[in-house]
Amino acid sequence: MNFRQSTIVLLLLVVGTGAIWDSKVVQRVRTGVRHFAAGEFEKAAEEFAAADSELPDNRTVQFDRAATLTAMGKPEDATEFYQQAALARSAPLSAAAHYNMGNIAANRAQQLLGDDPVNVASEQREEVLSELLSAVGHYRDCLRVESGHDNARHNLELIRLFIKHIQAEWEKRDRQKAREELGLLEFLAMIEQKQILLRQVAKELTDEQESPQRRQAIRETADSQRQLQEEIEPLKQKIAAELQVPAGQQPSPDDDQTQQVKTLLDQLADDAAAAILRSSDQLQSADLRAARETQLDSLAQLNQIYMVLVPFNRLLQRAIQTQEGLVSQSETSLPDTNQDEEDSQDEPASSPPTTFDFDQNTWHQIRVTDWARLLSLKAAAELPQVQEQLTAAKASAEATESVQPPADDNINEQSPTDGGDSAQTEASPDPTQQQLQAQVDVRQTAVELAPQVEQHSLTAQQELQQQQVTEALPEQQEALKLLKEIAKPLKQDQGQQDNEDEQQNQDQQQDKQQEPDSSQQDSDEKKKQDQDSKPEGDKQQQQEQQQAESVLRRAREREREHREQQKKLRRILGGLIPVDKDW
Q1: Cβ contact 408:570 at 8 Å
Q2: Lowest CB count within 10 Å: 23, 49, 108, 171, which one?
Q3: What confidence score (pLDDT) does residue 558 get?
Q4: 578 φ/ψ angles, rounded to the nearest 5 degrees
């Protein structure tokens, strides 16, 4: 950005008074201007500071002092004096002060942008825009005071074009970054969220009165809607990558079914793209109500894609989060049940709340209904596979235990060196089996309760469609209660996993403490050397003690090997089914 930069002025009369300045002050100002022109800013600053001290609150001196501080690279200090100079009665002086403050803000923005404005950090963008908009405000103040200020008009137009350009570049960069870095479901959620926001903007524009600003906003929304359609092709590419057969792996009979799924998802994506384009055309024609209905069609197609791809656990979690939001919205929208009887007569509890978005809440409730129906189907379809994995895990654990050599009777006895760790470990449940058992339990519960969730959610959405929040709320609360009941085995398993991890850390610390160090080994060797000088009975007792210690060491080694085998088994089985760690 090539801004036209600051100026310095010299007026020998006190503006508005007609009084002649003191000759000493005039000399200081002239000397300061001479130093400024020569680039001797430190000396200029000293002269202007002295003049300001001898003639306080003089706007001309304050302006020249600010200009010098700017040249010295102290814009923050300069701004204080520019603000004072902007109060001058002289229009040229006031305009110059506003203009230079605009330049300071614009230069700060340039420094934040650096040499690569497109790739500036996301957290700095808001600060950059704030500085640019501050510069715009100062330039406009300058033009308000002096409408013929060409430099201010030039910089104002330059910033307007730059903001439009850099925001477009940032958006393009973000879109490309999302395509490269986001996973399939995250990318799909990003498209869906953008469509939801655009639909909300269309709703707000529908309620606004006709104006040039409204027409401009509609055009920008239509452009954003059209740009959103460009994300559908990358979505299809991510779907193809997710469903393709890994390199080097032979195609299986299930590949035909996978291809059918891909064909279905591609068709849904194409339908969503077509709906997005139609809504863009409708927005361009200012047919906002039709555009919002078409946007809803695109969201329905995107949700169908989501339901095909989403794992059971993740779908359950999202259903709970969405239903929690709906319950909260309904609860906060209703009048206070503890209000006075007189107040409740003025506004009946059953009257629709004026700030409640029935359209948006109804749509979200419809999605929960669809998700509940899908939860039941996914649970029933996946249950046999998860039960089979649990059976395999139990069989593998039994096989692992059967190959362990019989332990000495003394192993299970607690001693100062043993502490009963081995017995406790054998009694502790296997984490892999716990995890798989939780997956079985949650699916069995879903088969039983998800149809009830669907029915309560369906009733709630029907009440919302009739704008009856009071009647919808109990149904929403019951749906949420059942969803949490379905998820309970997963939460319990997570708690057990946390306890198991803590116990494992404690075991590792105890193992480290029990491992003999070099000094202990030296001590053992010394004891062995001293055995020849001791009676035969003492030697036999020492040999028995050594044998006992050897048995304990072997037992601990076997126990560590057993834990490592369980970890490997857990990793293998854990890869067979996705287990969310967010519970």
Answers
A1: no
A2: 23
A3: 53
A4: -75, 125
| Measured distance CA(182)–CA(122) in Å, rounded | 17
Residue 166 contacts residue 276 (beta carbons within 8 Å): no
**One-letter amino acid of 163:** I
Neighbour-count burial of 30, counting CB atoms closer than 10 A to its CB (0-12 exposed, 13-18 middle, 19+ buried): middle
Rg (C-alpha) for the chain, rounded Å, is 38
**Spans of all domains in the chain:** 23-174, 183-243+257-309, 376-400+426-510+542-583
Q: What is the pLDDT of residues 84-121, one digit of tens each?
A: 999 988 899 999 999 999 999 999 999 999 889 998 88
Average pLDDT of the chain is 79
Angle between the 184-206 and 232-243 helix axes, to the nearest 10 degrees? Answer: 150
Q: How far is CA 158 from the centre of its chain?
A: 34
Closest CA to 131 of 172, 166, 150, 103: 103
Distance CA 361, CA 203 (A): 14
Task: Return the residue matching tokens 């081995």.
Answer: 422
Over residues 541-567, the mean pLDDT reads: 56
> Would you say 479 and 519 are in contact if contact means Cβ atoms under 8 Å apart?
no
Residue 207 phi, psi (nearest 5): -85, -5
How many helices and strands, by DSSP H and E, does the chain display?
Answer: 20, 0
CB 337 within 8 A of CB 372: no
Euclidean distance between CA atoms 351 and 335, whole angstroms: 9
DSSP structure class, residue 531: G
Can you read off the two tokens belonging to residue 362?
A: 């109804």
Locate 48 and state its tokens: 């202007």
Collapsing DSSP to helix, strand or coil, 20 comes out as: strand
Report CA 83 to chain centroid distance, whole Å. Answer: 40
Average pLDDT on 510-518 reads 50
What residues contact residue 533 under an 8 Å CB cut-off, 6+ apart?
none
* pLDDT reported for residue 350: 47
DSSP 550: H
pLDDT confidence band for 1 (50 / 70 / 90): low
Is residue 188 within 8 Å of 237, Cβ to Cβ? Answer: no
Distance from the Cα of residue 306 to its chain's centroid? 19
Query: What is the share, in percent, of the chain residues with pLDDT greater than 70?
Result: 70
How many CA atoms, within 13 angstroms, populate the side-chain half-sphere of residue 35? Answer: 22
The pLDDT assigned to 334 comes to 83
3-class DSSP assignment, residue 13: strand
Angle at 252 between CA 251 and CA 255, to 5 degrees: 80
Tell me the pTM: 0.66
Instruction: Write out the two tokens for 219.
Output: 């055009």
Q: Which residues pair with 20 in a beta bridge?
A: 13
Which residues pair with residue 13 across a beta bridge? 20
CA 491 – CA 499 distance, rounded (Å): 13
Lowest mean per-residue pLDDT among 270-284, 295-309, 503-517: 503-517
Q: Which long-range contacts (CB under 8 A, 24 or more apart) does 393-400 make?
A: 393/430, 393/432, 393/433, 393/436, 393/569, 393/573, 394/433, 396/569, 397/430, 397/432, 397/433, 397/566, 397/569, 400/562, 400/565, 400/566, 400/569
The HSE-up count of residue 8 (CA atoms within 13 Å, CB side) is: 23
Q: Which residue has the tokens 């080097």?
A: 248
- Could you please state the CATH topology (level 3) that the domain comprising 23-174 is classified under: 1.25.40
